[in-house]
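Priority: medium. Attachment 1 of 2:
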C-alpha cells in the first residue's frame, strides 16, 4: 500500500560533522538523477531505424537513430514548440504515429502521423481534451488503421474509435457500455472483450467476432476474486491465455476459454516466483514467459528466440537483457540491457553483434558494482531472498552495511539499477535489500505470512539477514545502518525506537511513526469491512497499534536518525515525520530533519533527489563512515 522510491528544502535540527567522501571519484548525487539521454525506444518494422525520446541540446526531443551503418546517426524530428511529446509508435518503415499534448490554455491531445523522410506532420482525427484517457488498443500491421479507446462526449465510460491512418477519419467502432472502462482487441484488430467494474462487482463483456453482439460473463476473468491478472484473446477463436493464481498460490500461465468464461490447463508455472507476463506472436502462438526470479528474464519456448536470447546474453554478459521487439523477418531485435551499476542502454542486435543505440545515463554507464541474489533462513526457518550489492574494488569481507527494506510492505525488490543503492555502493557501502515475509511476487502464501507481522516477523526477517551477513563475515557487525522509504522508513524508525544494537543509525523517508494515525488517515479510502481487514493485517495479535508505533517509544530513541518527508505527501501525511521530529526536539535528542516543499510520496526532479542523497551521504559519513 505504501510505495517506495523517492527522493527545495527546509533544514531543521542538524547533527555536527563534515563530509569527506570515501571515494572522491564517485559521481555527484545529481548525476544519479540526470534526465535520461534516451527512453521509449521503438524499432522500425524493417529494423533499420529506432525512434526514441532523447536529449537534444538538453531538451527532450523525438529523434530517429539510423542503424544502417557501423554506428548510429541521429536526426531530431521537429515538433511544434508548444506541444509535448507523449508517446510514439511505428506505423510502417517510414511513418510514425505520435501523440502530442498542447500546453498552455486549455490542454488538448492530438494524434499526428510523421513522415520520416520529409518530417511532415498530418493530424489524424479531431483533437481531444487532455483528460480523455486515450489508449491505443491496436495498430494494423500495414499501418492502415488504429483502434483508440477514448472518451465519448456525454458518456462517463470510453468507447473505441477506428481511425483511418491515411485520411484521418475517425468512426466510433464500439459504443461506450455502462461500467466498462477497459477494452481488449485481438491481433486482427477486433474488439473482443470489455472489463466492467461497479463498486466491488466486476464482469466481462465478450464476443467472438466484430459481427457478434457482446454477451456478459459472470465468471472467470470478469469475476471478482478470480485472481486473473491479464488475458489475451487469440483472433478467430474463443481461446486465449491468462495469468492467474495457481493452486500453490503463485501467478502462472493458463489457457483460457472466453466463451465459457473459465480457465483451462495450466501451461507454465515457476516454482519460486510469480510470472510477470507472457509473449505471443500475432497469430496467438505462445513464445515465452517473463519472470523475475534472481533477475528479470524471458524464458523463451520458441527455439529461435531462445537461441537469439542466448546470443544476446553472450554479447552483453552479466546484464539483464530484455528483447523489446523483433522484426518480422527476425533479422534484428531491439534490446534493453541493464545491470546493478548501469541504468541501462538500448542495443540493436543483428548479424551476430549488438550495436549500441544510446545509453540512458552515459555518465554512469559501466560502473562495476556487483548485485548478487542471496537466500537465508529466518529464525523460524522461513527462507528469505534478497539482493546484496557490493562496492567495486573491495573484498566482500568486513564491509560497512546499509540495510534498505522496501516499501509497501506488500511489494518487492528486484535485480537491477537503483540510484539509492548505486550512490551508496559508489561510496564504499554494501547494500542489503531483503524481500521479507509479506513481499509480493513469491506466491500468495508468502504474502500471507506478512499478515499481522508489522514490526515483528517482517522486522525480524530484516534483522536476521543482517546477522546472517555478519556471520558470513561480509558485513562488519559494528558498522550497520538501516535506511528506507514509506514502510521501509517505518522499519528504520522502528529499529531506532527499539534501540536495536545491530544498527548504528537510521534514515527514514516518508516513514510511518504512528500506525494508528496512519490507519485513521487511510480509513476514508475503505468501507468498514475492508478497513477492519486492513487493520487486522497490520495489527495481528498486538495489544494495540501503539505497540507497533515508533512515536510511542520516542523516549527510548537515542540512535542517530535522519528524517525526511515531502510536504505534499498524500499517501503518508507529513505529520508522521513532523510529530517524531517535534518529539525528539522536545527531548533534546540530536537528529536530522528535512522537509521538501511541494513534494509527494516520492521525490520528483534531480534537485531534491540529489539534495536528499547528499544529506544521506553526510549523515552516514558522520555516523557510519565507509
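Attachment 2 of 2:
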Amino acid at each position: 500500500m505504501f510505495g517506495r522510491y523517492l527522493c527545495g528544502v527546509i533544514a531543521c535540527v542538524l547533527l555536527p560533522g563534515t563530509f569527506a567522501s570515501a571515494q572522491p571519484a564517485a559521481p555527484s548525487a545529481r548525476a544519479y538523477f540526470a534526465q535520461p539521454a534516451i527512453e521509449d525506444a521503438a524499432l522500425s518494422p524493417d529494423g533499420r531505424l529506432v525512434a526514441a525520446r532523447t536529449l537534444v541540446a538538453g531538451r527532450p526531443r523525438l529523434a530517429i537513430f539510423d542503424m544502417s551503418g557501423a554506428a548510429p546517426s541521429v536526426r531530431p524530428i521537429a515538433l511544434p514548440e508548444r506541444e509535448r511529446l507523449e508517446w510514439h509508435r511505428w506505423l510502417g518503415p517510414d511513418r510514425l504515429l505520435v501523440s502530442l499534448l498542447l500546453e498552455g490554455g486549455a490542454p488538448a491531445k492530438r494524434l499526428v502521423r510523421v513522415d520520416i523522410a520529409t518530417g511532415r506532420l498530418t493530424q489524424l482525427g479531431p483533437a481531444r481534451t487532455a483528460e480523455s484517457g486515450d489508449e491505443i488498443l491496436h495498430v494494423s500491421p500495414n499501418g492502415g488503421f488504429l483502434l483508440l479507446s477514448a472518451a465519448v462526449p456525454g458518456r462517463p465510460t470510453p468507447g473505441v474509435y477506428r481511425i483511418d491512418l491515411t485520411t484521418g477519419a475517425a468512426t466510433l467502432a464500439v459504443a461506450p457500455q455502462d461500467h466498462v472502462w477497459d477494452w481488449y482487441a485481438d491481433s486482427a484488430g477486433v474488439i473482443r472483450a470489455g472489463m466492467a467494474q461497479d463498486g466491488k462487482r466486476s464482469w466481462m463483456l465478450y464476443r467472438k467476432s466484430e459481427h457478434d453482439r457482446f454477451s456478459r460473463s459472470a465468471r472467470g476473468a470478469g469475476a471478482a476474486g478470480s485472481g486473473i491478472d491479464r488475458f489475451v484473446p487469440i483472433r478467430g477463436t474463443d481461446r486465449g491465455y491468462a495469468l492467474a493464481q495457481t493452486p500453490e498460490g503463485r501467478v502462472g500461465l493458463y489457457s483460457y476459454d472466453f466463451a465459457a468464461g473459465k480457465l483451462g490447463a495450466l501451461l507454465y508455472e515457476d516454482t519460486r516466483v510469480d510470472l510477470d507476463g507472457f509473449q505471443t506472436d500475432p497469430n496467438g502462438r505462445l513464445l515465452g514467459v517473463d519472470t523475475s526470479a534472481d533477475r528479470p528474464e524471458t524464458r523463451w519456448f520458441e527455439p529461435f528466440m531462445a537461441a537469439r536470447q542466448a546470443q544476446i546474453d553472450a554479447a552483453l554478459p552479466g546484464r539483464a537483457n530484455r528483447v523489446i521487439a523483433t522484426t518480422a523477418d527476425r533479422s534484428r531485435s531491439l534490446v534493453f540491457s541493464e545491470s546493478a551499476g548501469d541504468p541501462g542502454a538500448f542495443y540493436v542486435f543483428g548479424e551476430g553483434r549488438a550495436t549500441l543505440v544510446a545509453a540512458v545515463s552515459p555518465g554512469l554507464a559501466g560502473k562495476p558494482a556487483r548485485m548478487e541474489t542471496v537466500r537465508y533462513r529466518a529464525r523460524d526457518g522461513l527462507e528469505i531472498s534478497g539482493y546484496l550489492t557490493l562496492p567495486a574494488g573491495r573484498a566482500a569481507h568486513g564491509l560497512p552495511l546499509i540495510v534498505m527494506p522496501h516499501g509497501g510492505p506488500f511489494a518487492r525488490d528486484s535485480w537491477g539499477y537503483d540510484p539509492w543503492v548505486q550512490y551508496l555502493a559508489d561510496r564504499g557501502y554494501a547494500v542489503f535489500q531483503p524481500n521479507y515475509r509479506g513481499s509480493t511476487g513469491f506466491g500468495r502464501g508468502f504474502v500471507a505470512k506478512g499478515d499481522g507481522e508489522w514490526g515483528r516477523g517482517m522486522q525480524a526477517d530484516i534483522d536476521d539477514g543482517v546477522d546472517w551477513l555478519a556471520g558470513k563475515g561480509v558485513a562488519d557487525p559494528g558498522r550497520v545502518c538501516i535506511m528506507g522509504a514509506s514502510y521501509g522508513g517505518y522499519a528504520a524508525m522502528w529499529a531506532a525506537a527499539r534501540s536495536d544494537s545491530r544498527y548504528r543509525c537510521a534514515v527514514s523517508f516518508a516513514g510511518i511513526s504512528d500506525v494508528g494515525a496512519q490507519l485513521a488517515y487511510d480509513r476514508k479510502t475503505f468501507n468498514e469491512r475492508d478497513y477492519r481487514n486492513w487493520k487486522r493485517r497490520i495489527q495481528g495479535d498486538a495489544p494495540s497499534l501503539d505497540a507497533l508505533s515508533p512515536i510511542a517509544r520516542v523516549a527510548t530513541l537515542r540512535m542517530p536518525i535522519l528524517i525526511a518527508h515531502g510536504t505534499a505527501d498524500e499517501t503518508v501525511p507529513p505529520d508522521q515525520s513532523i510529530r517524531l521530529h517535534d518529539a525528539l526536539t522536545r527531548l533534546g535528542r540530536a537528529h536530522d530533519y528535512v522537509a521538501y516543499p511541494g513534494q509527494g510520496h516520492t521525490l520528483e526532479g534531480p534537485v531534491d533527489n540529489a539534495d536528499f542523497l547528499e544529506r544521506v551521504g553526510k549523515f552516514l559519513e558522520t555516523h557510519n563512515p565507509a
